[in-house]
Amino acid sequence: MMIHYSDEAIQEGLRLRSDYIINFIYKEFFPLIRFLIVQNGGSGEDAEDIFQDGIIIIYNKISINQFVLTSSFKTYMYSVCRNLWLQKLNKRKAVFDKLTDVEEYIDLPQAFLNEKSVEEAEMHRIIQIHFLSLNEDCQKVLRLFMKDIPLRDIASIMGYRTENYAKTRKYMCKEELKKRIADDPRSQKFLKR
Amino acid sequence: MTNNFKHSASIEQYLANEMAPAERAAFTNELRLNQELSQELKLAQSIDSAIYNDDIIDLRRKLIAAINTDRDFKAEVPVVRMNNRKWWYAAASLLALCAVTATLYLQTNRNISSDSLFTQYYNSENIVDLTRGDENIVEAVIKFQQKDYNTASELFNRILRKDNSNIAVWFYYGIANIETMNYENSIKAFNTIIKHNDNLYIEHAEWYLGLCYLKSNQKDKAIDQFVVVASNPDNYHWQEAKNILDKLQLK
Q1: Among A7, A95, B23, B183, which residue has the fewest nearby CB atoms (within 10 Å)?
Q2: Which domain holds residue B21?
């Protein structure tokens, strides 16, 4: 039997990236989001994308203390995903009279989801998915480089003999990542700009 | 953008602040004129920005895991109805898939014991799917999915005590008992299915019966059983039975 968490617990659990809470959110709210997307011209895959983007956006708000619940978490989550899907439909120039809602929603502030942040969320999702598909060694070396750790230390942490090899390895890993992203049809619209 | 990145080296130097001032100025100038360079730089910058935050990467990993677990679960447990003949075909296809995997595995392993032969061929992961229509069966199948095979076996047994004509339940019961290593019960279940002689579980029951004999050190009976399977080219487990017989006769 699944434990039910209060909205405060969900918020705190998400802030801590608790496995339990993430699984709970997925099990509890994803069916609703999928229903919304599928009812409004999307696919199950679209629903997964929107769900992930919605959670990351909410997490970002929570982590910078900009998250204030004025409704239930469910309504909030639904409203964020609804907004994301509306933007996506507009971009696809999809013909639809009115979104068919399957849950009550709140109006989010205009600045909450601007076009740039929605696009960025989408591009970051694609990049992160491919990043996580790289082998552990590649993920680690790329992340160490992102932290501005001295080359000597990176070579030592990774067990590479020379600093030069650490640099070469990072280069090769990033090239592989770029290749995977460029091969992904979902990223074409971002790459052609 | 193609996936041939022509400017990666200079872009990495630029992003890492490793360019001399004149070189950097030339690069910046080139950016204004060269759209391809500009696109490649944007991609490299997006990557850096997307993987910068460890917490976000951690959250993404967990989200992907939650989604994949759900997908795997659905793939393993297709929802089909008890009285629909498609159920049989679905189960049979999954079993065939297991068998192919096992065959591939066996081909790479020559010297093996009865115990390890059993382990290689037996895999309950893809065997049974969710059944609708009977609450007691559903409860039992849920226990089965949760890998609580003791409870599942008990519940299936309870159903069979009330009505022993449900062949699907006998099959579940047989598999649950393999998982709990009560091979006598499994043998009884698979023999019941075979004796019934008018159901689509027979060939699977014949195969699993052989595996149960193998596991309970009844090698001769196991060989006889695999001969039955191997003598019917239409049996889903025909090839596996032939392979396992080769192995058993080599020992």
Answers
A1: A95
A2: 1-52
